[in-house]
Amino acid sequence: MQCKMEDIAMLHGNMEDIAGETSTTNDNETNTDLSSLAKNQSAQAFFGPENPEEPYSDDIKYNCVAPDKRFQSMFNLSGGEKIVAALALLFVIHSFQPTPFFVLDEIDVALDNTNIGIVASYIRDKTSSLQTIVISLKEEFYSHADALIGIRTDISECLESKMLMLDLTTYPTYIN
């Protein structure tokens, strides 16, 4: 029985060490991505366990401080601020566990035109290490794309979908 207690104590100590290292690394990475995404060095993010005493037994909390604002709960952030914060977290996770591509559905819905340009530029900067499919209905966002793909219904004998593709790389770059 004594050996099991020692094993549990050692495991608990190792978990605390790992949680501490992960928390520090994630905070630094998240702050870097959030500051880049927000185009403002005053943006900060905090990522850690709800229960620091037993980090493996509870939820993870994620809070952000929007540029030039005071700390407030994620519930009190605007829709655009929440999107930027969520994207920062997504890109931090991607830096640890890379995936070949992202599919992002209408991430620009709550963003104003300025932030649409910032987010689109940020995603474009990541294209060397990541392919991204973004579903958007806003010209301000899809004007930054390499290609536009449209899906339409073809009404003939059978109801089917057809795909249209426009390669934007053949056109001169014009971004506001």
UniProtKB/TrEMBL annotation:
The superkingdom of the source organism is Eukaryota
Question: What range does the record give for the signal peptide?
Answer: none
Q: Where in the cell is it found?
A: Nucleus
Q: Which GO terms describe its molecular function?
A: DNA binding
Cite a GO CC annotation.
Answer: nucleus
Q: Which residues form the RecF/RecN/SMC N-terminal domain?
A: 46-153
Q: Name one GO biological process term.
A: cell division
Coiled-coil ranges from the UniProt annotation: none
Major place of localization? nucleus
Which keywords does this chain's UniProt record carry? Answer: Cell cycle, Cell division, Mitosis, Nucleus
Q: What is this protein called?
A: RecF/RecN/SMC N-terminal domain-containing protein
